[in-house]
Structure formats: structure tokens, C-alpha cells
TrEMBL record, chain A:
This is 2-oxoglutarate ferredoxin oxidoreductase subunit beta. CDD domains: TPP_OGFOR (cd03375). InterPro entries: 2-oxoacid:Fd_oxidoreductase, THDP-binding, TPP_enzyme_TPP-bd. Residues 66-214 form the Thiamine pyrophosphate enzyme TPP-binding domain. Gene3D superfamilies: 3.40.50.970. Keywords: Oxidoreductase.
TrEMBL record, chain B:
This is Glutamate synthase. It holds the Pfam family Fer4_7. PANTHER family: GLUTAMATE SYNTHASE [NADPH] SMALL CHAIN (PTHR42783), GLUTAMATE SYNTHASE [NADPH] SMALL CHAIN-RELATED (PTHR42783:SF3). It comes from the Bacteria. Residues 493-522, 552-582 form the 4Fe-4S ferredoxin-type domain. The keyword Iron applies. It comes from Paracraurococcus ruber. Keywords: Iron, Iron-sulfur, Metal-binding. The keyword tRNA-binding does not apply.
Length: 351, 599
């Protein structure tokens, strides 16, 4: 970790976004993670994505649990709302916050321990309830804070730093998310911001449960020969399905593609997800095919990345529950406490 | 692009913008760190070795280093390098014991220096420690040349000149022939010197040639002559209304001197536009601050006089026109002439060289501008044993250039006297030394100060304008000097990259506060400059390119606005980035004498 704050001086030509902010305005405190941690690259990608989307920082609620990954919300979006919850309980806290105020942009940041072990159930239920959120798992396959034990996402056969071989089956969070109905599912790599930043942008604009499994090498405990989550291994086995561009309404379309190479998906808010195909047969709107492909390529030893599934017309928890559109903090007492007559009416309906 | 060769001394030297811009290549960040550490004597010695006159230059230097300073590109103003140099001079202890020792036994060679200005004195300083006997000739009664005669005392007290000239002339090995003007180079050569150095300056001020000049001659003075008369106390007053012609630093010295000698309405008149004036911006600022208007685009047309008594001048109004090649010409603006009333006119419109004392049959050739034909690197003339430096060499420049010429000429003279080829120049001495002390500890202060430039305190106008000998700048006190020194970005502490250690984790890219670092596919420079994290638009600043990465990409660092904060190295998990101090000693005939700072 560095002891000094990052100098405030910045590049004199640093551009500003529609709100007049530079990218530096979306930073947080300096990282206290190990030097070279993949998580820091993901933080940088989140900063870049929020800056490019001209998101007002105070409209974002960043939530996390416990672990190296869950420390990172301190390192980006210093002017946003933050909640560092109990281990594995970020999804519940996020769900509650989302129910109380649906106007904020919810960004849940978690790790493989936080989401695949202690918080596995929480993760699963927040996805199947279709909370409108961006859920990023910073997946390094190892318990870094406790010095490098295998986590639940470590691949079978993967070697620990001291040579132990993992004998347990891994949990594939992308597979779970697909199965439980996430409407935007992606996998990426902290070492490939060109892929990661647009995926985060697309997720932030997606009006439903958006899940990104981001492989993020642990430089201290899981970046050695025999690891399947090291920089070298991921680079060698990375199979990108597509390259995403997020096009907001006002952006001019400048690049031309040969027919059939590009597929466009328009989301509810008018933003366009333009997918440049890198893999001929892949259809990201077919959930079953996506699951099948994922298993097939995994068996072949590949790490499938890119936007793996998108439901262009998702529904979220609020739609399911038919909740009031206004955030609770904007409702008056009369709405929030409707009185005994209203209660009696509800009770009568249940008899 | 080809990978950058960091073993090439110029590669990292160029990154140290101040040192690169300094004609004498003074290691600026090194002495600024010493000032911050309170090691004023050490800071002085680093300077003395490079630029010979730290106390003088700390008050008067043209400071090519400051416009070059990287700090000026990341915030509003550069580090006050020049005035920090003065702090070292003002606060040092007695350093006489640390000067280069002079051998008791000479080497039997004799060298004559014509003129006792900065270039000649530099030659003397660089040769005497090698055993040379150096004879310095000057028509004036004291050494210093232009430094003493042309710079007003309110900018440079005489004690400072005496001290720093004395370090050269009063320690043995130098024979001064003051009050002895050289009238014939031939006669001097006949005295059997092994080599001659001509550092006689550019002593003639350019004349004003307009009707009325001759008639009103009594109240029209050539600027540099007038300044020297003021300096020696021969002139103690001036008319109430003064016109100063010219836009250079001499004109600024003239107008500010005139203000102090009773000039109430002092006006500077320049032919060109205000922006194109040759005077340094801070000198113009100082003049304006003292209530001296600068009027531009006025060409002298006529001197008005009443039977020899000057009454004013008439100027023609012009405007600038540029041709297709961008060359400027001043054409009449077609507006009515401007008349400015005056009692005195000071002419500071340039200087001319003159060597009436050099016989034209000695084999020493001159070019069509009246300057000697010289080898630019060796300063050797077409008469092999005669070398030139300072304003006598390539026309009027300034003190720091004169010093640089002196160093170069001293190397040549030493080679020449030893019978070696003067073109066989010694290389600069360059070293790279890691500054790593611990995981995140460096032997330099890498915390970047957010402070803006501190203003040097001045004596109040009511005191300063009443006494021409009172030094107007008070200099930084130690506390201010520390804070100003902390603004230095330590550009000599280089970011050195080792591709074989890099795992391409992007940590350096993410942390860099000024977006200097990019990992990308290689390409031609013009293309690469557009593809970086921040486009590298400053073509004066090189890209640092390294190949040999696993992914086949290259690391490209735009050196332009790097803060040298070391964050890339702190966040690097494998030590692929290291902060290494680049020490460059420009070649000199004498070895360095200072105790270098902790390396």
C-alpha cells in the first residue's frame, strides 16, 4: 500500500464529461490493497465507466460485504453513498435499499468468498428476486485476506501457492446467475479494461439484475504457475464471445461493420448495446444456449468472457411487487401511515 | 517505435527539463533538494561547480530553466529556480575550504584571457586547478565585466560580485591585469602564451540614427554605457521625463534605474508588439509594477530639440504584418505620429560586436556580421590557439551562456595545450541510482506539494525607489525557500521500466495521476501519440517506449507531465518500475568538488 495520497495534480488536457467532471472526480481514497491487485483495475474500470456515462456520483449507492473486494468501494466514487455490510450480506442490504429508493443506481461489489461461500444464498436470492442492480464479483479464487486458502470458485485441480491441489468442484457464479434469471450476465478480466469498461457501462444502464463475474488475479496468493486465475493463465485461455459498445442516444455512430458482424440491443432507457461478434455462432439473447455454451467451452478448458446473456426487456423486483414509484423518502406521512381503515382493508383482503 | 535507449545520457537528461535547458546543465533538482534539506553550502557547491556564479546568477540569471520547468505544465507557474539558487548563496557557510584545490606546482602552461567577464573567469576557474597559469586582462579596475558594469546595484550588490570573482582570482594561479586594455592581439600573442581566450564581450551599444540625434546628443545616452556610468556613480541623476528606447532586458534596467535617479515620467517605447519584446516577462512585470508604461508599435522618427535642448521624440505608429512564411514586417499603420515629451532619451536597442584590436592578418577570420568564425562545439577560431566565448563568440547572450562557453573553451584549451584533438570532447558523466529504501520508501521526498509559486518579497517602493544601491529583492527566507523547494517535482528521479519483470497488471496505469502510462500495440510515433491514455501532444517531450512484454504490447510513457511522484513504482507488485536518480555532470576540464547528496 502507498502511504501518500495520490497527488491532486492531473493531466492538463484531461477531458470533462457532460457534467463538467474529469475522470479524477470519480476517484476515491488511495487503495490499501496489495500493489498489483486486480481489484484496483476493476475500481479504475468502474471510475472510467461512471465518468463516461456522466453519472452523478450522488445518485450511486455502492454496497459491499467483507473481503479484499469489499474494501474497494472506498477507492472509487468518493462522493457516492456507500454501505459496507456484514460478510456476505450485501445483497440483502442492497435489496432493502433498492426497495426504499428505486431512483438510485445500485452497485454491489463482492468477492468470491463473500458471494460464493458465506453469502451464496444471499447472492442467489437477490438474483432470482431480480433486484435492479449491478452486481460485480471480483473473483480471484482465493482467500487473500487470510493468506491464500482456496475459495469456492477455485477450479478443481488448481494449485495453491504452496503446491496443494484443489479437489473440490468450483462454483461457477455465471452459471448460477444465468440459471436464476439474471437479465444481464457477463464475465470479464481485470487485465482487459477495453472489454470490462463497456460491460460495466451496459450493466449500470441495464434496468434489471446485471451480474458481472470479473476474474481478478490475486498477485500475492494466486498468480503463480498452476493457478487458473493468474494473469498469464487467464490471458492464455480467454475466449471473448463479443466486444460491447454502449451507445447513448446522442452518440454518433461512426464505425461501420460488415453485415452479420454486429448485433444491437436497445435497452429500456434508449441506450444501445452494440455487440461486435467475435464468435460466430454465439447468440447472447438465448439463455439456454448460453448455459450450454458455457459448459461446453469450460470442458474445453476455455474461459468464456464477454456479454454472455442479455434480456432486452427485463422486469425487476419493483415490477413484481407492484410497489409505489416514488422513493419512500419522498412520500408524505399520509402515504406511509395510511391508518387503521387501510390496514383493515388489507386484512380483509387476506381473509 | 524503437524501444528507448535509456543508457543514452540525453534520454533522461531531456526529462530533467531545467537541467537540459540550462546552458551550463546545472543539476537543478539536486540542489533544490539540498536547499529543502537545509544543506545550503552543499547546494551552493553543486551550483558553483556547474555555473560558477551562484550568488550572481541567483539574482540576475535569464533563467532558461524556468520556462522549461515541468511544474509550469501541470499547474500555473514553474518553480522559482533562480531565486532558490540565491537562497543557497545567501545562507551558505564559509565554503572557501571546499573550492577546487589549486596545485602548488604549475604545469608550465600559460593562458591569456581577454576580458574579466563571466566567460573568461570560468575559463580561469576551470584551468587553474589543472596547473595552468591564467592571465586575465581587463580595461576596468575590477573583475566581473558586464556583471559589474551593466547590472544595476539594486539588483546585484557589489559584495556578491567581489565574493564570487574573488573565489577565482584570489586563490593563486590567476594573474590579473586590471586597468590594462588589450589593444593588440598580436602583441599579446608575442608574449608567448600557449593559448588565448577572448571573452571581451559585445561592448558597443547600437546607435540611434534619426534626425536631431546629433543636435540633442547631450541628453541622449547609449543604454549600456549609461548603466555603467550609473553603476560607477558617474551619473547620479536623470531628467524628469525619460524615454527608454528598446524592449530588451537592458531597456528594463535603464527604465528602472531612471525611476530611481529622479525620473518621474519614464516611458519605454518599443518598435515591436509588447508580447515580442526580448525582455524576460518578469523584468517587464517589475517595470510595470514600478509605474513605467511600455508603449509598443512605435518607431523612432525624429528627436525634437530646442537649440540642442532635448524636448521630446516623434514616433511613427506601425503595425505588424506577416508574410506567407510567417516573417514579420512593421508597416506604417497610417495613424498620426505620436510625440512624447522628454528631457532624456536612453537608447537600448541592441549591441554590436567590435574587435578593432584584433589584427586582420593573424589568420583569424571573421564572418559577415563581424563575429569570429568559430567551431560551435570547441569555440576554436581559425587561429588555432585563439578561443572565443561569451558575447564575443556568437553575439550578445547572457551570463549563463557565457559560463557554458567558458566550460567548453576550457576543455578545448586543455586539450589543445596537451597536444590532443580539441574535437575529441569528453562525454558527460551520467549515472542512474535506485532511490528505493523500503517497500514504499524513497530517498527523495515523493509527496507532491500542492502549493502555488511563492512570491519573492520586495523592499517597499518608498524605500527602494529612493536609493539606487538598495537591493530591491529581499530574497526568500529559509521557511519560504523550503516551501518553494518542495514544489520541485524531482524530475531527475526517473521512472525506469523493466519489461521482463512486468506482469501487465495495469496497476501503474491506474494509479498514475497524470495518465502518463499506456500499454498498447506498437506503432509509428505519430499514431502512437494519439492512442495513449492521454494524447501526447507536446512533441518537445519524448515517449519512453519499452518492448519485451509477454502480450507483445509495448509500454509507452509520455514524459511530458510526469510528476515523478513514484506512485507507479509504489503500486508495482514486481518492481518493474523503479525510481532512479539520474545524475548528469556536464563535461568540464575539472572534476566535481561538491560532496554529492545521498544517492
Amino acid at each position: 500500500m502507498s502511504f501518500l495520497p495520490k497527488p491532486k495534480l492531473h493531466h492538463p488536457k484531461l477531458p470533462t464529461n457532460d457534467l463538467g467532471f474529469t475522470r479524477r472526480d470519480y476517484e476515491g481514497a488511495i487503495s490499501t490493497l496489495c500493489a498489483g491487485c486486480g481489484h484496483d483495475s476493476i475500481s479504475a474500470a468502474i471510475i472510467q465507466a461512471c465518468w463516461e456515462l456522466s453519472i452523478e456520483p450522488h445518485r450511486v449507492a455502492k454496497m459491499s460485504g467483507i473481503g479484499c473486494s469489499s474494501k474497494t468501494p472506498d477507492y472509487f466514487l468518493g462522493a457516492s453513498h456507500g454501505f459496507n455490510s456484514v460478510h456476505g450480506r450485501m445483497p440483502s442490504v442492497l435489496t432493502g435499499a433498492n426497495l426504499a429508493n428505486r431512483d438510485l443506481i445500485y452497485l454491489g461489489v463482492s468477492g468470491d468468498g463473500d458471494s460464493a461461500s458465506i453469502g451464496f444464498g444471499q447472492f442467489a436470492h437477490s438474483i432470482r428476486r431480480a433486484v435492479n442492480m449491478t452486481y460485480i464479483v471480483e473473483n480471484n479464487g482465493v482467500y487473500g485476506l487470510t493468506k491464500g486458502q482456496f475459495s469456492a470458485t477455485s477450479d478443481k485441480g488448481s494449485k495453491a501457492k504452496k503446491g496443494t491441489v484443489n479437489t473440490d468442484e468450483p462454483i461457477d457464479l455465471v452459471g448460477i446467475a444465468l440459471q436464476l434469471g439474471a437479465s444481464y450476465v457477463a464475465r470479464s478480466f481485470s487485465g482487459d479494461k477495453a472489454q470490462l469498461v463497456p460491460l460495466i457501462k451496459g450493466a449500470l444502464r441495464h434496468p434489471g439484475p446485471a451480474f458481472i463475474d470479473c476474474i481478478s488475479p490475486c498477485v500475492a496468493f494466486n498468480n503463480h504457475e498452476g493457478s487458473t486465475k493468474s494473469y498469464d493463465f487467464v490471458r492464455e485461455h480467454n475466449e471473448a464471445m463479443n466486444q460491447l459498445d454502449v451507445i447513448l442516444g446522442r452518440d454518433a455512430i461512426t464505425t461501420e461493420y460488415a453485415p452479420g458482424e454486429v448485433r444491437e440491443v436497445t435497452q429500456h432507457d434508449g441506450s444501445v448495446l452494440r455487440l461486435r461478434k467475435l464468435h460466430n455462432q454465439y447468440d447472447p439473447t438465448d439463455r439456454v444456449a448460453a448455459m450450454h455454451h458455457l459448459h461446453e467451452r469450460k470442458a474445453a478448458g476455455e474461459i468464456v468472457t464477454g456479454l454472455l446473456f442479455i434480456d432486452p426487456d427485463p422486469q425487476d423486483l419493483h415490477a413484481h411487487l407492484d410497489t409505489v414509484a416514488a422513493p419512500l423518502n419522498r412520500l408524505g406521512t399520509a402515504d406511509l401511515v395510511p391508518g387503521a381503515a387501510a390496514l383493515a382493508k388489507v386484512n380483509a383482503a387476506l381473509r | 517505435m524503437k524501444p528507448t535507449d535509456i543508457q543514452q545520457p540525453d534520454t533522461f537528461h531531456k526529462v530533467v527539463d531545467c537541467q537540459w535547458a540550462c546552458p551550463a546543465h546545472t543539476p537543478v533538482p539536486e540542489y533544490i533538494r539540498l536547499i529543502a534539506a537545509g544543506r545550503y553550502s552543499d547546494a551552493y557547491m553543486v551550483n558553483w561547480h556547474s555555473n560558477v556564479f551562484p550568488g550572481i546568477l541567483g539574482r540576475t540569471c535569464d533563467r532558461p530553466c524556468e520556462p522549461a520547468c515541468r511544474r509550469g505544465r501541470v499547474e500555473e507557474e514553474p518553480v522559482a529556480i533562480c531565486r532558490l539558487k540565491r537562497v543557497a548563496a545567501d545562507n551558505k557557510a564559509d565554503i572557501r575550504g571546499r573550492l577546487t584545490p589549486i596545485p602548488a606546482q604549475g604545469n608550465g602552461k600559460r593562458v591569456a584571457c581577454i576580458g574579466a567577464g563571466p566567460s573568461s573567469l570560468t575559463v580561469a576557474r576551470d584551468l587553474v586547478p589543472l596547473g595552468y597559469e591564467v592571465h586575465v586582462y581587463d580595461g576596468a579596475a575590477q573583475g566581473g565585466g558586464f556583471i559589474r558594469s551593466q547590472i544595476p546595484r539594486f539588483r546585484l550588490p557589489a559584495e556578491v560580485i567581489d565574493e564570487e570573482v574573488g573565489y577565482i582570482t584570489d586563490r593563486g594561479g590567476v594573474v590579473t591585469h586590471y586597468g590594462q586594455r588589450v589593444e593588440s592581439l598580436k602583441a599579446l600573442l608575442d608574449e608567448g602564451f600557449d593559448a588565448v581566450f577572448v571573452g571581451s564581450g559585445a561592448p558597443r551599444g547600437r546607435e540611434l540614427d534619426v534626425p536631431g540625434r546629433a543636435e540633442a546628443a547631450e541628453h541622449i545616452h547609449i543604454g549600456i554605457d549609461w548603466l555603467s556610468s550609473v553603476s560607477f556613480g558617474h551619473v547620479t541623476e536623470v531628467g524628469k521625463r525619460v524615454i527608454v528606447l528598446g524592449g530588451g532586458n537592458t531597456a528594463m534596467d535603464c527604465c528602472r534605474s531612471a525611476r530611481r535617479l529622479g525620473g518621474e515620467e519614464v516611458t519605454v517605447v518599443v518598435r515591436s508588439g509588447f508580447e515580442e519584446m526580448k525582455a524576460s516577462p518578469w523584468e517587464k512585470e517589475d517595470a510595470l509594477r514600478e509605474g513605467i508604461p511600455i508603449r509598443n508599435y512605435l518607431v523612432p522618427k525624429q528627436v525634437l530639440h530646442d537649440q540642442g535642448r532635448l524636448t521630446g521624440m516623434v514616433f511613427e505608429k506601425v503595425r505588424a504584418e506577416y508574410d506567407a512564411k510567417g516573417r514579420r514586417s512593421l508597416v506604417p499603420a497610417g495613424e498620426p505620429d505620436v510625440t512624447i515629451a522628454a528631457d532624456t532619451v536612453l537608447v537600448a536597442i541592441g549591441q554590436e560586436n567590435a574587435f578593432p584590436w584584433i589584427e586582420r592578418d593573424l589568420g583569424l577570420e571573421f564572418n559577415r556580421w563581424g563575429l569570429p568564425v568559430l567551431d560551435e562545439a570547441t569555440h576554436q577560431s581559425t587561429l588555432p590557439k585563439a578561443f572565443f566565448g561569451g558575447d564575443a563568440a556568437f553575439g550578445p547572450k547572457n551570463i549563463i551562456w557565457a559560463v557554458a562557453h567558458g566550460h567548453a573553451a576550457a576543455i578545448s584549451i586543455d586539450l589543445f595545450c596537451r597536444g590532443e584533438d580539441v574535437r575529441n570532447r569528453p562525454p558527460p558523466e551520467a549515472r542512474l541510482i535506485s532511490q528505493k529504501m523500503g517497500i514504499h520508501e524513497w530517498s527523495y521526498d515523493n509527496d507532491v506539494s500542492p502549493d502555488l509559486r511563492f512570491k519573492v518579497p520586495h523592499a517597499p517602493d518608498e524605500v527602494a525607489l529612493r536609493d539606487i544601491t538598495l537591493e530591491v529583492e529581499l530574497g526568500y527566507d529559509r521557511e519560504m525557500a523550503f516551501k518553494e523547494a518542495e514544489r520541485c517535482l524531482n524530475c531527475d528521479v526517473q521512472t525506469v521500466f523493466s519489461a521482463k519483470l512486468c506482469i501487465e497488471c495495469d496497476a501503474c496505469v491506474d494509479i498514475c495521476p497524470t495518465d502518463c502510462i499506456t500499454f498498447t500495440a506498437n506503432g509509428e510515433e505519430a499514431d502512437l501519440r494519439q492512442r495513449l491514455k492521454a494524447p501526447a501532444l507536446n512533441l518537445d517531450q519524448a515517449l519512453y517506449v519499452a518492448d519485451g512484454l509477454k502480450t507483445g504490447r509495448v509500454m509507452v510513457k509520455d514524459e511530458d507531465v510526469c510528476l515523478h511522484c513514484g506512485m507507479c513504482a509504489e503500486r508495482c507488485p514486481t518492481g518493474a518500475w523503479d525510481m532512479q536518480k539520474f545524475i548528469l555532470e556536464a563535461a568540464k576540464s575539472v572534476p566535481p568538488v561538491h560532496a554529492a547528496a545521498a544517492e
